[in-house]
């Protein structure tokens, strides 16, 4: 178990990178405390798997250092880093029984058989696999195979960190939910640092204490699920988290005031800076139908049971709103008002308002 | 209820006709010969199972079968491990992959009688490159027309040269199909190279390896052209394998009845061994 520090980490798959665009990972500085649950969240190709492989030692970074408890492990191979990794597709040793699969990492390290037996039985019980220990692993269902992959990580009690690389991709939706809560439960039982890579916001937000959102090889925000949802630091975070994502509307800034679609917009706080491109962001949960506001007509309306998501169009800009109770019909004329406490200015995609005093 | 569409028969019919003409009809002719005696002149007399009994008791058949089994067993023992080793050593990525694949495929592209002729000339003691070097350069008395041992070594080396590539290519196909995650997981689990081979590569190659062994068994057990061109079954009868002996009986001595009975026994052995091997290898498969 260890604290993980990434120090000015950069990686390029090209032999001689020149421009920042050549880097799959652009300078990353990060520190993860011991036995926390972390998620790396971002769309495919954002560099999260690259980052994961650097931490596990399958990849050596072009620049920068990886430290476990302050010790430089950048050049160490995976087996000397004491880490475990669970891959997207379950990796099992086909010819071995479930028991031998779980025992494999320990036997490779020369642990004595009595200890192996104790550990394997303990982990199998946690994963609810104890009645299948003698089954051939290749005869199991995908979710049980993935449990074995996890088990091979958990069975070693000296691991610094267990990493999950989109581990639920091949699992059926209903079992996904089960396996995810199992994982959360395991993390509470075994205090070990866990890093979970996913492009699924629900997985990230339910699993992790802290989520790292990545885009184009860069970290755009690190925060608790609540922080990410309530105050996205980047339009990408707002757009990516929430369903539907944050409304992002082009706006003009003049003399410290923002105006959007011809109407003055009240913001959460004072404007801290202005950039080339200015936008305001507001989550659909905080758009209200009011008597005054931005005039729009309803283009789409989706009743999700507890609430209705409407897509309204003002000029040629689409704005989503989540409405409780009676929702307007399609084609209805409405006026939209934004909650000022949840309305922020973004300059060149990064947040540009000061946080409102609580 | 299931609806039955009789039209399907029309699609199967051409294949049925084709199989009938190139396999079933000739096979039935052989069955027909195997239970009759002929003295030419298109006159046939019923012989019952006499030829089968004769062949099964014949020492000549036992000897040829023994040589055949020895040959097949020897080339399998060499070609399978060698094929796996070469496949493991081949690069999985980069420009050398295609070079290696083409080099490996080359022996397979050469017609069988040419392979026999090539090795025949190659090993001639007076003008063949290998034969001359062994006799005059190294000083070994090597002449496969006089020494049975030399003849055996030559046909085995020739077969290994000709057919190991098949095992290599099949194994290679099995190896490249293993996702990287397996190797990465094994690395993280601290597995040794031997463990990676034993628990990842070998199980993943099992299916293709089964096919490779099956193909090499059937081909080598029925081999005719190459050893016939190379040694003609000699010196003496030392390299007279089953197929060579069969042709001698059928076309040399024109004993159609015994030859037909021998063909059927030969066919039954090939079929039985292939079936047993395949059943044993696939019994654990889901």
Radius of gyration of chain A: 24 Å
| Helical run tally of chain B | 12
Give the percentage of residues in beta strands of chain B: under 5%
Query: Describe the biggest sheet of chain A?
Result: 6 strands, mixed
Question: What's the shape of chain A?
Answer: globular
- Compute the CA-based radius of gyration of chain B: 24 Å
Order of helices and strands of chain B: HEEHHHHHHHHHHH
Question: How would you describe what is shown here?
Answer:
- The complex is a heterodimer of chains A (358) and B (286).
- Chain A has 358 residues and is α+β, with helices and mostly antiparallel strands.
- Chain A has a six-stranded mixed beta sheet with strand order 6-7-8-3-9-10, sandwiched between helices.
- Chain A is globular.
- Chain A is built from eight helices and 21 strands.
- With 286 residues, chain B is an all-alpha fold.
- The chains are: A alpha+beta (358), B mainly alpha (286).
- Chains A and B meet through strand 6 and helix 2 of A and helix 8 and helix 9 of B.
Compile the SSE list and pairings.
The complex is a heterodimer of chains A (358) and B (286).
Chain A: E1 4-11, E2 25-32, E3 37-41, H1 48-56, E4 63-68, E5 71-72, E6 83-86, H2 98-108, H3 113-126, H4 142-154, E7 161-165, H5 173-189, E8 193-198, H6 201-207, E9 210-215, E10 218-223, H7 225-230, H8 235-240, E11 247-250, E12 252-254, E13 257-260, E14 263-265, E15 278-282, E16 287-303, E17 308-314, E18 317-323, E19 333-338, E20 344-347, E21 350-351
Parallel strand pairs in A: 3-8, 3-9, 6-7, 7-8
Antiparallel strand pairs in A: 1-2, 1-4, 4-5, 9-10, 11-15, 12-13, 13-14, 15-20, 16-17, 16-19, 17-18, 20-21
Chain B: H1 8-34, E1 36-38, E2 44-46, H2 50-57, H3 59-89, H4 96-109, H5 112-122, H6 129-138, H7 148-176, H8 180-188, H9 193-221, H10 225-230, H11 242-252, H12 256-282
Antiparallel strand pairs in B: 1-2
């Amino acid at each position: 178990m260890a604290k993980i520090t990434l120090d000015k980490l950069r990686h390029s798959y090209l032999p001689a990178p020149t421009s920042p665009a050549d880097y799959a990972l652009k300078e990353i500085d990060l520190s993860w405390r011991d036995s926390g649950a972390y998620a790396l969240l971002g769309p495919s190709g954002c560099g999260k798997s690259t980052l994961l492989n650097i931490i596990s030692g399958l990849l050596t970074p072009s620049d920068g250092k990886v430290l476990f408890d302050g010790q430089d492990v950048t050049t160490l191979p995976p087996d000397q880093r004491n880490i475990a990794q669970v891959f997207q597709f379950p990796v099992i040793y086909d010819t071995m029984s479930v028991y031998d699969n779980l025992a494999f990492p320990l036997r490779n390290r020369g642990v004595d058989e009595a200890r192996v037996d104790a550990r394997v039985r303990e982990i199998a019980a946690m994963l609810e696999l104890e009645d299948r220990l003698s089954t051939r692993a290749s005869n199991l269902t995908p979710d049980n195979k993935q449990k074995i992959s996890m088990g091979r990580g958990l069975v070693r009690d000296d691991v610094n960190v267990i990493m999950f690389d989109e581990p639920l991709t091949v699992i059926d939706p209903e079992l996904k939910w089960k396996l995810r809560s199992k994982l959360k439960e395991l993390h509470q039982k075994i205090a070990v640092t866990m890093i979970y890579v996913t492009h699924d916001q629900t997985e990230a937000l339910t699993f992790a204490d802290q989520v790292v959102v990545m885009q184009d090889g860069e970290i755009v925000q690190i925060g608790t699920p609540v922080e990410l949802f309530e105050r996205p630091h980047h339009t990408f975070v707002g757009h990516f988290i929430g369903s539907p994502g944050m409304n992002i509307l082009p706006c003009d800034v003049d003399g410290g005031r923002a105006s959007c679609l011809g109407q003055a917009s009240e913001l959460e706080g004072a404007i801290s800076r202005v950039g080339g491109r200015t936008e305001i962001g507001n989550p659909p949960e905080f758009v209200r139908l009011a008597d005054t506001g931005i005039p729009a007509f309803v283009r789409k309306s989706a009743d999700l049971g507890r609430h209705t998501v409407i897509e309204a169009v003002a000029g040629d800009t689409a704005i989503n709103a989540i409405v409780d109770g009676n929702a307007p019909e399609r084609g209805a004329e409405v006026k939209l008002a934004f909650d000022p406490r949840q309305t922020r200015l973004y300059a060149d995609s990064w947040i540009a308002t000061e946080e409102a005093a609580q | 209820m299931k609806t039955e569409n009789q039209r399907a028969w029309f699609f199967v019919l051409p294949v049925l006709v084709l199989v009938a003409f190139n396999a079933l009809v000739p096979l039935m002719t052989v069955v027909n010969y195997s239970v009759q005696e002929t003295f030419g002149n298109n006159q046939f007399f019923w012989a019952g199972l006499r030829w089968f009994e004769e062949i099964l008791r014949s020492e000549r058949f036992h000897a040829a079968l023994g040589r055949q089994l020895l040959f097949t067993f020897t080339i399998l023992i060499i070609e399978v491990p060698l094929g796996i080793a070469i496949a493991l050593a081949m690069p999985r990525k980069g420009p050398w992959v295609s070079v290696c694949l083409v080099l490996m495929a080359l022996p397979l592209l050469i017609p069988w009688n040419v392979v026999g002729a090539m090795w025949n000339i190659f090993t001639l003691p007076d003008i063949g490159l290998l034969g001359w070097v062994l006799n005059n350069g190294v000083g070994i008395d090597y002449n496969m027309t006089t020494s049975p041992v030399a003849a055996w070594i030559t046909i085995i080396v020739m077969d290994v040269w000709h057919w190991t590539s098949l095992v290599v290519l099949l194994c290679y196909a099995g190896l490249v199909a293993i996702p990287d995650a397996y190797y990465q997981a094994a690395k993280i689990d601290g597995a040794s190279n031997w463990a990676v081979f034993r628990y990842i590569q070998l199980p993943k190659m099992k299916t293709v390896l089964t096919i490779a062994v099956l193909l090499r068994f059937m081909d080598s057990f029925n081999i005719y052209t190459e050893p016939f061109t190379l040694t003609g079954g000699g010196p003496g009868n030392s390299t007279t394998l089953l197929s060579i002996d069969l042709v001698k009986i059928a076309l040399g001595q024109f004993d159609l009845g015994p030859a037909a009975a021998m063909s059927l026994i030969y066919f039954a052995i090939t079929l039985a061994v292939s079936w047993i091997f395949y059943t044993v290898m696939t019994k654990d498969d889901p």
